[in-house]
């Protein structure tokens, strides 16, 4: 895992925990569906819902990061910090695309 740059403490993502607990339940449900040898299409619908929910959490965290960490870097005076944030976002988007 890559080291954080910029904000030393990180964002408070407590509001995402409810969604993550729900996703954990979805994953447990998918596990049980597979154990119970449920119909493949039903399992695929369930996995699609879990992936969608996880992407939603990912999107909210990215939005928070842009609105806090990146905005802070861009309102500051350090050109080096601005360049680091641009590179960080570029690398993140490249990794998310895969």
Provide structural commentary.
The structure is a single chain. The chain is an all-alpha fold. It has one domain (15-97): Metal-sensitive repressor, helix protomer (Methane Monooxygenase Hydroxylase, Chain G, domain 1). The chain is built from three helices and no strands. It has helices at residues 17-35, 40-75, 79-97. Helix 1 packs antiparallel against helix 2 (40-75). The longest helix is centred in the middle third of the chain and has 36 residues, at 40-75. The two termini are 17 Å apart. The relative contact order is 0.13. Mean pLDDT is 89; it is low at 1-8.
Indicate the mean pLDDT. 89
Share in β-strands: under 5%
Order of helices and strands: HHH
Helicity range: over 70%
Question: What would CATH call the class?
Answer: Mainly Alpha
Number of E-state strands? 0
Rounded to the nearest angstrom, the radius of gyration is 18 Å
* CATH homologous superfamily heading: Metal-sensitive repressor, helix protomer
Structural domains: how many: 1
- Described by the principal axes of the CA atoms, the overall outline is elongated
Q: Profile the largest sheet.
A: none
Structural class by SSE content: mainly alpha
Number of helices: 3
Low-confidence segments, ≥5 residues, pLDDT <50?
A: 1-8
CATH topology, which one? Methane Monooxygenase Hydroxylase, Chain G, domain 1
What CATH architecture label applies? Up-down Bundle
Q: Between the first and last Cα atoms, what is the distance in angstroms?
A: 17 Å
